[in-house]
Automatic annotation (TrEMBL):
One Pfam family this sequence matches: Radical_SAM
Family: Belongs to the radical SAM superfamily. Anaerobic sulfatase-maturating enzyme family.
Keyword check for Cytoplasm: no
Source organism of the structure: candidate division WOR-3 bacterium
Protein name as it appears in the record: Radical SAM protein
N-terminal signal peptide: none
Domain Radical SAM core: start-end pairs: 94-345
Keyword Transferase: no
InterPro entries tied to this protein: 4Fe4S-binding_SPASM_dom, Aldolase_TIM, rSAM, rSAM_sf, Sulphatase_maturase_rSAM
Cofactor(s) it depends on: [4Fe-4S] cluster
An example molecular function term from Gene Ontology annotations: oxidoreductase activity
PROSITE patterns hit by this protein: RADICAL_SAM (PS51918)
Amino acid sequence: MLFLMKNFIYLPVSNAIIKVNPLVRDVLNLMKENNDKRAILKRLSICYKEEEITTAIREIEDFNEKLNLFDFERPYFTRAIFPYSTQEIYHNLNKRLSHMILDITWDCNFACKYCKYSGIYRGERVNTEIYMSKEIIEKALLFLKNHSSESERLSIGFYGGEPLLAFENIKYAVFLAEKIFTSKEIRFSLTTNGSLLLRKEIRRFLREHDFSVNVSIDGPKEIHDRYRVNRLGRPTFNFILRGLRAFKQESPEYFMKKVGYIVTLTPPFNLDLVMDFLNEWDCKTDGPIFVSLVDPYETDFYKRFSTEVLASFDKQLDELIEESLKKDIPEGKINEFLHQFLYKDLFIYHNSPKGNLSKELFIGGFCIPGYDRTFVTPDGSIYPCERVHYHLKIGDIFDGFNFKRIKEIIEEVEHLKNENCLECPIARLCNICYTSIYRSGKLRKDLFYTACKSRRRHWEKVLKIYARIKDTYPDFFALWENKKEGHYV
């Protein structure tokens, strides 16, 4: 069990947070350390009456005998299992694909200093003038058609590099998809650095085909231009802003609904400045904001910064959370910026099953490789998603999915989880995925252990904040769920 704030305890097996009085908390804490009744009486007799202690011990033992609520036994879980059978995996990959991402080009007109493909990451590809051919586009879309017979809605995304450098091929893919999938609803999406939104032809095409457009913007000019530069090392903020403003002026309703932003936080950190910018600038939309840090794995990017500079991120984030808990939560609001880092997991926990749950641990975080997203590279190779990309090939559009390899990957993950996670108190909530632990086709235990420590710290913080909100504003989550639309500030 995990002891949270005040008298709140998280119980791993039941996935529940309960509130107890101080005496019960103290007794449970000593029971957790394997103290017997005599030792507990001796330790607590200074603060409580012997009769009270004895009653508390008896009630805990009776309650635990009926419900096994307090998780005194180790391990917490009997085994970890992948939540899909072999038959379900095969069926979903052959009949129910719904989201394909085309890695339309590896070319880029930016040279962002933290980019995954800039050469600063060990084992990663680098941006180069490689484009997906029309033949590969056609075969990829036919592959999607042949593996989506039970899907009513399809999503097709474009990734890079800078995908809009391949605008002619994007147009070809869209027209072909609309011709192939006449009986299905199709949605298109695009991740872009925003520079080519200056072209009116591109803006019109995206609008006419109702694209969801996610634009990378890291904050105000002085922060954005520190790392996001073009190939000549020149700043890019003003070009992006001009394109966005033109987009907004031409079609304000579409812009507000369909444009979102991707924000990468970089040291030296100034979270207040970034958050204020996103809340106040003239291109703010109702679309999503995706916020993340520079990937710390397999790079020396962070070594140039002092410990104090790096530690300032957690300090600033904690200050923003504290301010939000005092200001936003009482007003029934959720801060969109903090939602990406923390609050979305509050709702994931709130909506997760609780109570008399199986002691088998259903592995979370790890999808059926290639099912949630089918990522196709310029040569037609298939990977689980755009985040895992070139480290975990699972087939190609010519010969189909490599089910033998997919089975091996799932078995590797099951073995890893059974070996390491059965005694972990946050195992039910853990969302480590393939992208954190695979490099060059191999599972890396060192990466897993690093990710494990990070996820455990994160979820312990989430649970503490959840307990605090429930204690101070017990109706908050129920009221929030009753709202028809989220009220983000």
